[in-house]
Amino acid sequence: MSSPKGCRRCGSCCQQGGPALHGGDLALIRSGQLRLDHLVTVNLGELAFQPLATTATTVAHEFLKLQGKDGTWCCTFYDESAGGCLRYEHRPLACGLLDCTDTGPLLDITGKDLLTRFDCIDHDDPILAVILNHQEHNPCRDIQTVSDDFVQIYGRAELLAGLLEDVNIDLAFRSRTANTFHLSVALELFYFGRPLFQLLLPLGIQPVNTNDGLRLNYQFQ
């Protein structure tokens, strides 16, 4: 696990999240160096951090990135004990360009030629129709709009009720699809991205299981 010039092997970049994937990374997927269950779809409307950014912004175009681990965004291939990458020789394009002393090359490709799940799914795969149906009838909420709406004191109960309905629909869909296609949680994240309830957590909206079913609680941020 060698390092680019100027790299201090501090791990900060890897711990802040795996990279977005670009067109040049498709060969890693087709060769099996990256599997679908290594990847997560980031949907239109989510909040996500762009490279080197300190605040999350609304995702304008769907893209793929490496999954996190242990409930964090820390790249799944980052080896804390060695302070390096487990897939260094077959790392994605963005990883190869990242240099703490010169961020220009990485910023030059940010948002360009991004891979999506549709680049990785065969056109005759039966799950493709399911994904398109989900995308049409249950699109990802615009999370920034949800956040802005919750700044207002009035109407929060109605907003929570609408979100709870969407969360339950999303969870029921995922459960049916996972059972039908025998999907692991990791593959579900590739095919459909993170569930809505996870996207709401940074806003202070948390799911709580009760005897009457799921409930959403809001804690002002």
Strand content: 5-15%
- Biggest sheet, in brief? 2 strands, antiparallel
- Number of DSSP helical runs: 9
Protein structure class? alpha+beta
The succession of helices and strands, N to C, reads: HHEEEEEEHHHHHHHEE
Write out the strand line-up for the largest beta sheet, numbering strands in chain order. 1-4
State the share of residues found in helices, binned by percent.
Answer: 25-40%
Shape: globular
Radius of gyration: 19 Å
* Chain-averaged pLDDT: 89
Question: What is the distance, rounded to the nearest whole angstrom, between the alpha carbons of the first and last residues?
Answer: 41 Å
What does this structure look like?
With 221 residues, the chain is an alpha+beta fold. It folds into 2 domains: 12-119, no CATH class; 127-218, no CATH class. The protein has 9 helices and 8 strands. The strands form 4 sheets. A two-stranded antiparallel ribbon has the order 1-4. Strand 2 and strand 3 (57-58) form a beta hairpin. The model has no long low-confidence stretch (mean pLDDT 89).
